[in-house]
Structure formats: C-alpha cells, structure tokens
Design goal:
The chain is of the alpha+beta class. Helix content is 44%, strand content 17%. The chain is extended, with a radius of gyration of 38 Å.
Length: 363
C-alpha cells in the first residue's frame, strides 16, 4: 500500500514538471512590473516638483509686476511719481443728497405714470436706503497743472490728484523751416483710408454694410529706412485722417488738377525720426501701461516678445496651480486641511464671480 501511494504521488509531479518546461517559463519575475510602475510614478513626481519650482522662479518678475501694478490700479492715491501730489479732504458743505434726488425722481415718475393706463405704480418708502453707488469724478487744467477731483457724495470725503504739466513746446511758425528732428508736416495726394475702404468694400457688401459708414478708429503708422544727412535712420510717417484740402496752386496760380479734371486734394501727415520725440511717460504711467500691454504686434519687436512672455506666464501659472494640487495630494497629512481650503476657495471664487457678473451687467 505504501509503494502504490508513492508511485501515484510521483506521476503528477513529473507531469507538472514536463508541462512547465523551459519554454513556458515566465520572462518577467513577479513584482518587476510593479517596480517599473513605481519608478515611473516617482520619476513623474520628481519632474512635477522640478517644473513647479522653476516655473515659480520664472513667474517671479511678472507676479511682482502684476501684483504691484494691480495695487496702483486699486489704490489711485498710491503714487511713485514726484510730479504728482495727493491731497485728501472732507467737505462740510451741503452736498446733493441721494435721498433728495430719489424723491424728486419718484415724484416725476408718479406724475407720468398716472397718465398711462396699466402702468406700474411707485412709492418712495425708505429715504435712508438712497445711496450713491459711485464716486463723482471731475478733471480740470490750467497752464501749469492737471487736476483730478474724486469725491464720495455719501460721506463728503475725497481727494485731489494734482500733476504738474510738462511745459508745452512752442509751435513752430509756418514761415520757419521745419526739420525731421522736430517732426515735419507733410502732405500726400492719396487718402490711404479711402483706399482701405475700397479694399474691404466687397467684404462689407456681403454683410450688407456700406464702407463709407465705417469709422476708422486706428490707422497704422509707416516706418521705413532712409538716409538723413547721409546717415541711415528709421523714419516714421503718421497719417492724419482728414477729408482732404485743395492742394497748392500751380505756377500760374490755378489749383492743380487731378485725373478727373477737378482740383487735387492733399492729405496731411507727420514725418519724423523714430526715437527723436519721446512721450512724457511717468514711472507710474509706464507701469500701468505695461500691465495692460497685450496682443501680438505686426513687427517682431519688444512688444512681440512681451506677448510671448505673457503666454508663457499663463502656461506657467496654470501648471503651477495644477502641479500644486498634485503635490498637495501626495502628502497625506495635509489632505484634510488642504481639501477644506480648496473647497472654501472654490466657493468664494464662485460667489465673487456670480456677484461681479451681476454688478457688471446690472450695476
């Protein structure tokens, strides 16, 4: 009995060994696939942390710029311009009360609505609820100063923003020869805006619009290379939109004719050397305009590279936020408080977005 049992047990073992054989031996050891996956995840986490770090360093100048200039937008009295003075004040004089204006408006509405069948009725019920929703703003100037007045009519508090004017350049007499350095007034015989209208006529006709009704708000300047006193310079021609004026007379004192036999017209513009007539731009104005600079210009100049930097900042900020979420989730002890902050931030952002939409639409 013992021998039979031994033979019976050995047969399955031999068959099992034959079935396994060298050809059917698994090529991957158990756990190797799991190790490769763990290594890949670890490598990805390392790259996320590195890019998160370096994108934060890349964004630093732009974050500081946008943050500081946003402060200037939000607080107009914060100034870094030595030529600007801020004077705060509080008026004791009697200001036009919001409740008085509301009452007068309601009385007028009641008189008009009474004569209309089926119209609404209105009644002034709570004078204390009347309030001005914005501050009053006014500007004025004299030969020396530009003055801005901002006043809260609810409280009587406000401020004066006073900025010294740049001395005006004396107008060049017409009989004095002008130069390119100071800007040379020139005239041309063709109106580029009219040519522009004719070029888009068929396009606008397809949409049932007349190009003559189009107001051209911006017409680009033309820059080109020229030899000025034998020196290569970049010259700019700025066209002044106008309806045209009769040209100068010919040698016999008669208006020079055009192709149709009528008097020719001249169109004004200005020709100057690029960089010779800089704008009066204070540091505050420069920072605010830098904050609002956007879009890709036609030329690949500094503005073009600035637009690239803005796009890179957008991509970096989006990645920075998303990678921060990934890094937060990897630290288990911070998940609970981080989740509360994330939910709270989302709720506040949603509330503000909906509220600001209402204010911008109905405010």
């Amino acid at each position: 009995m013992m021998e039979v049992t031994t033979e019976t047990e050995e047969v399955p073992k031999q068959q099992t060994a034959a079935l396994k054989g060298p050809a059917n031996k698994p090529s991957v050891r158990p756990g190797a696939k799991k190790k490769r996956k763990k290594k890949f995840v670890s490598s990805m986490n390392m790259w996320i942390r590195r890019i998160h770090l370096f994108s934060g360093l890349f964004m630093l100048p732009w974050v500081l710029l946008y943050g500081f200039t946003a402060l200037l937008f939000n607080h107009p009295t914060v100034t870094i311009d030595s030529q600007t003075q801020i004077n705060n004040f509080a008026l004791n004089e009697k200001l036009p009360a919001a409740s008085t204006l509301a009452q007068l408006a309601v009385l007028s509405a009641q008189e008009k609505l009474e004569s209309v069948d089926g119209a609404e009725t209105i009644e002034y019920i709570n004078p204390a609820s009347a309030v001005y929703t914005r501050k009053a703003f006014g500007t004025m100037e004299n030969a020396m100063t530009n003055l801005s007045l901002v006043l809260d009519l609810n409280s009587g508090s406000g401020y004066l923003r006073q900025r010294a004017k740049k001395p005006e350049v004396e107008a060049i007499p017409t009989d004095t020869p002008q130069t390119l350095k100071s800007g040379l007034s020139v005239t041309i015989e063709k109106d580029p805006i009219e040519q522009f209208r004719q070029a888009v006529r068929s396009l606008l006709d397809d949409h049932e619009f007349n190009p003559e009704d189009m107001t051209v708000r911006t017409f680009p300047t033309v820059e080109f290379d020229a030899l000025v006193d034998g020196r290569r310079q970049r010259v700019r021609f700025s066209y002044t939109p106008s309806r045209g004026r009769p040209s100068r007379t010919d040698s016999e004192g008669n208006p020079a004719g055009d192709e149709t036999g009528g008097p020719k017209k001249e169109y004004a513009g200005k020709l100057d050397i690029v960089g010779n007539n800089p704008r009066d731009l204070s540091l505050r104005s420069y920072l605010l305009r830098l904050h609002m600079a956007h879009g890709y210009p036609v030329q690949k100049n500094h503005r073009w590279f600035w637009a690239i930097a803005v796009d890179l900042m957008f991509a970096s900020m989006v990645f920075w936020g998303l990678s921060g979420v990934v890094m937060w989730w990897q630290i288990k002890r911070t998940r609970r408080i981080g989740l509360l902050l994330l939910i709270g931030s989302a709720l506040v952002a949603t509330w503000l977005a909906i509220g600001m939409h209402w204010e911008l639409v109905h405010g």
